[in-house]
Amino acid sequence: MAEHFNKKSGLSGTVPLGSFNSMFSFTGSWKVDAAATKALAMDGFYFPLYKAKLISDDLLLRDDVKRAVPHSWDPPLLASFIENFGTHIITSVTIGGKDELYIKQHHSSQLSESEIEKYVKDIGDQRFLNMEHQTLNAPLNYKEKDVTVIFRRRGGDDLVQNHAEWVHTISSAPDVINMTFLPIVSLLNGQPGIQNLSRAVDLYLELQRVWAPAPVNIPGHQRKEPVCPSLQFSLMGPKLYISAEQVSVGRKPVTGLRLSLEGSKQNRLAIHLQHLATLPKIFLPHWDSHVAIGPPKWHGPEEQDCRWFEPIKWKNFAHVSTAPIESTETNIGDLSGVYIVTGAQLGVWDFGAKSVLHLKLLFSKVPGCTIRRSVWDHNPCPTFAQKLDDTSSSTSGDNSKLAKIVDMTEMLKGPQDVPGHWLVTGAKLGVEKGKIVVRVKYSLLNY
To answer: What 3-state class would DSSP assign to 207?
Structure first.
C-alpha cells in the first residue's frame, strides 16, 4: 500500500510517505505500525478538475544550483544547499476534490480476506451511495470487528454530509488532491558530490543527538563513588545502588531515555537522556533563550499510591513504581503551550527490604505549540538491543546478576520514525520478565 502511494507521487521505493501515515493515522514508526496491522484497504472517489504539469520531461538544473553542490562531505555546506534548494522538484499538481475511506484491520480481527472485502464494500456503499432508505444485513460495528475506519475529504464544502451534494461543491472550493515529485539528485548524474548530497538528503531530518550526562573521560581522574540508596532483590543477592543525580538538559528537546549501570563495579543504576545538541530552527520562535517559558516543574508518582508498586523478583523485597509520569497541564490541542521532558531523576522510597524505585521527570513549557499526536512506545531500539546481547557475555559474577535485572536498551525515536521529530513528553518505569525497564511517551507538536 505504501508503494502505491509512492507511485501516485512519482516516487519509487516502499518507505511510507507522510501522506500515507496521515491517511491511515499511523504513528510513523514502520516497525510499530507493521506489527499492529494485519491488512489495509481503501475506497473512494477522486474528482480532478485540472492539473498543472511540467511539460518537458528533459529537466535540467541551473548551473548555479549544480555549482552549489559540495564536492566533499561537508555537513554545514550540504545543509545550506538543502535549505536553499530543497530536496525534490514538484513536477505536477492536481486540483479538485476527493472523498475516501481508509481501513486498518488489526491482528486481533478474525475477518477473512473475503469478509474484509465485503466489509469495505458495505462501508463504501453506505458512505458514497447515500443509502438512507436501504438497510444493510447487519449494522456496521467497527470495534467488534477490530478494524479502524477513517473517512477523509479534500476539497468541496466539508460541512455538506451527503456525498452526492458534496460533489457539487468541489468546483467552488477545490483543493490540492495530489502532487508528484522528482528528487533533485536524479538530475545530478555524473556531478561530483552527488553521493554526499544523496546521503545528506536521507539524513535531512536528523540533527546531532547526544546523551546526558556526558561521560567523565579525564585521564588520571576517577570520580568518587557517591553514597546512594540501594535495592535488594533477595536475602543473599547483590545490592543495586541507585544514583539520585538530577539530569537536566535545559532548552534542548529530549528524544530518548535509557537505564545504565555505572561505577567501577557496574552496580549503580542511573538514568540517561538523549537530546538534540542544538535547537532546531522551527523551535527558535518558541524556545529561544530570550523567550519567557516560566520555571521547569518536577513531576513524580505519589509515595503512598501502592497500586502502582510491582515487585522485581519477590514480594518481600524491592519494588518498582510503574506509575506513568506526564504533565497534567498538557492536553492535545491546548493552545496555551506544551510541556516536554527536559530532565529526569531516579529515587528510592525506603520501606526496608521492600524499598521502591521510582522516576521523576522535569517538564519545561514550549509556548505557542500544541500536541498533534502522542504515543506510548514499548519497543526498544533494536540496534542497541543487539549491541547489548553481544556484550553481555563479557560480564561476570555479581555484575552479571545485576545486568540481568536491568534492561539497558535505548528507548528513542529518530529519522527512521517518520516524520522524524518525535519528542519525549512522558515516561514510566516497569518490570518485564524480571527486569527493570523504562518506557517512553512521544509526541508530535504543531508549531
So the answer is: coil
DSSP-assigned letter for residue 417: B
d(CA 164, CA 167): 5
What is the enclosing helix (H) or strand (E) of 100? strand 88-106
User: How many residues would you count in the chain?
Assistant: 447
Residue 197's φ and ψ, nearest 5 degrees, are: -65, -40
**Three-class DSSP category at 271:** strand
By three-state DSSP, how is residue 32 classified? helix
Domain ranges of the chain: 2-202, 209-217+227-446
Burial of 3 (0-12, 13-18, 19+ CB in 10 A): middle
194-202 vs 75-85: helix crossing angle, rounded to 10: 80
407-377-439 Cα angle (round to 5): 35
Strands 230-232 and 239-242: antiparallel
Dump pLDDT digits (tens) for 331-356: 666 667 899 999 999 999 988 778 99
Q: In sequence order, which ranges of 129-267 are alpha helices (DSSP H)?
A: 163-167, 194-202
Q: Which residues contact 88 (CB under 8 A, 6 or more apart)?
A: 181, 182, 183, 184
b (16+ CB within 10 A) / e for 331-368 = eeeeeebbbbbbbbbbbbbeeeebbbbbbbbbbbbbee
pTM: 0.57
- Cβ atoms within 10 Å of 62's Cβ, excluding its own: 9
Specify the amino acid at residue 323: A
Rg for the chain (alpha carbons), in Å? 26
Collapse the DSSP code of 294 into the 3-class scheme (helix H, G, I; strand E, B; otherwise coil) and give the result.
Answer: coil
Q: How far apart are CA 154 and CA 227, in angstroms?
A: 61
118-170 residue pLDDT tens: 888 888 888 888 654 443 334 445 555 788 888 888 999 988 888 999 999 99
State which residues of the chain have pLDDT below 70.
13-18, 21, 27-32, 130-144, 202-207, 216-225, 330-335, 378-400, 414-420
- CA gap 264, 267 in Å, rounded: 8
